[in-house]
Automatic annotation (TrEMBL):
Belongs to the membrane fusion protein (MFP) (TC 8.A.1) family. Residues 1-18 form the signal peptide. This is Cobalt-zinc-cadmium efflux system membrane fusion protein. PANTHER family: CATION EFFLUX SYSTEM PROTEIN CUSB, SLR6042 PROTEIN. GO terms for cellular component: cell envelope; membrane. InterPro entries: MdtA-like_b-barrel, MdtA-like_BSH, MFP_Cation_Efflux, RND_pump_MFP.
Amino acid sequence: MNHHKYIAIALFIGVAFASCSGDAGTEASSDTAKAKTEKPDGLELTPEQMQTVGIVVGPVTQKNLDSVIKANGQLAVPPQNKADVSILSGGIIDHISVIEGQQVKRGQLLATIKNQDLIRIQQDYLAAKNNFTYVQAEYSRQKQLQEAGAGTGKSFQLSEATYNAEHSRLTAYESQLSQLGISPGKIASGRIVSQFPVLSPIGGTVGQITANTGAFVQPGTSIMEVVDNSKIHCDLTVFEKDLMHVKVGQKVSFQLTNQENELITGTINGVNKSFENESKGVTVHAVINNKQQKNLIPGMYVTALISTGSRLMPAVPVDAVVRSEGKQFIFAVVPSDEKSGTVKFKKAEVATGVTELGFVQIKPLQDLPASVKVALKGAFYLQSKAAGGAEDK
């Protein structure tokens, strides 16, 4: 009985040791796996390695670069170069003489409107004109009598008042007919018309036509628009933080956002003096240099770079900045013990700005020492080594 008891105790101790050694083995393998997945904190190279691959380190310098401000906006035309073609007197559209997209000149016939009241206006005009002929003759006769001392003052004053009243009434009819595009001279010769023309108020391109033949239009209704795209300009939104740097006369480069980033240039010619709504943005106007006669249409969206002059700013050579996963980095030298004989690099994320003459403005997104040195040449090699090292581990 005792013999069996010793065997049981021995088996229990063996199982316990096996369990402990199994746990220890698991923990060891876990630590090894963890070590394999951890990325290195930086890259260390010897001076010989740096010389072999052409890595050069140096400080971030202050460069006098042409500063730019980025702004978004869209193309537009001045109010005087865009016209709604409206009807002064209601009627039925008898004929539309143009199509959308057609080039027209100022005063060109766009449509004709039938209006029965137009006949009454012409009849009233002819009656007023005939009556004025008699009133004018009577006034002239009374004036001659007055000058000869044969007439009475009362008769002359009455004829003068009647003359002035009838002359004003006749002038009002003539003005009304002229506004409708009808020549009073033709009406006086007996040519009564039942329709009036609609003429283009400006030269340009016919835009959307919002009415059709046979439709009845109310007075003041717009039936189409005419736009002069030769005077197109750009309205940009500049925010308060950049406003003090924007001035009339500065050069602007535009990229047409939805037109394969077509590039055009221009000049700032006006800065508004009030904020737009609650956006804290101010509208800045720029004239466009369109010598290539590109097809620019109001409403096109643009991204603009406004040149605001040279300013000192921290910059590094363009090759010192590498891109990875949508971000931008430089390789900064990590201070280390000089006795180690190696140079240690660490990636530091940056935002970039102006690029000019092979240098690019940088703004570190994390704190770096003022005297930090970075890889001015060979950053691409460091990036490749860092990526390869991460995969190997």
